[in-house]
Amino acid sequence: MFRWHSGRPAPALPRRNPMPEPTKLLCRIINWTTKPCTPMNDRNRVRMLIGIIIALVLLNAGLLTWMWLGSQRHHREGDGRSYLSKTLGFSEEQRTKYRAMRQRHFKTIRPLLDSMRQERQRFFRQVNDSTQTDAQLTQQARQLEENSVRLDVLTLRHFQQVSALCTPEQRQKLQKVLADRPGFGSFSGSGWSGKHRSDSSRRDRSEK
């Protein structure tokens, strides 16, 4: 035991709580995607690109999950209106137009979502396959990034149409609602495709 010069024992340092396992896993992922390397070689570029793509996919997934589940939650509560139309205070005519607009949007992006899910699953199934070159992995990762950018553009166009439907006061509310969204959510394979399947009964229940 360490002692001061006076002979008294030094005070014991407070014990730190062990880091939770999920936090340890998150730290490992962050360290893996952001670990600095010198010089920057192809493998490090792939690592950085994959980290960026994961962030983009999560942002897109969070926004689209909110768009879908918000209306489902309020429908179950018996309100019969989607979260967005209720928050913005849409009139009956606006709600009718928004419902058709929203259904067209999901019909447009559903094939892209399915393609992104399948490509992402194929990409990460290679976790134990070391035969792929860095150039091949980079090409696959860039394809995922291109689809994510395309989804961003389609989603922005959708909200531009929603904004055109709004009054000036409703546009301010819409801007605030979108700015307040965290942009993170689940993007698991079966769960995502299930929430966005082309089942007409599920789609018709989203908003009345």
Automatic annotation (TrEMBL):
Transmembrane segment boundaries: 48-69
Residue ranges that the Swiss-Prot or TrEMBL entry lists as coiled coil: none
Composition bias, Basic and acidic residues: 196-208
InterPro entries attached to this UniProt entry: Metal_resist
Keywords attached to this entry: Membrane, Transmembrane, Transmembrane helix
Region of interest: Disordered: 182-208
Superkingdom of origin: Bacteria
Name used for this protein in its record: Periplasmic heavy metal sensor
Gene source species: Larkinella humicola
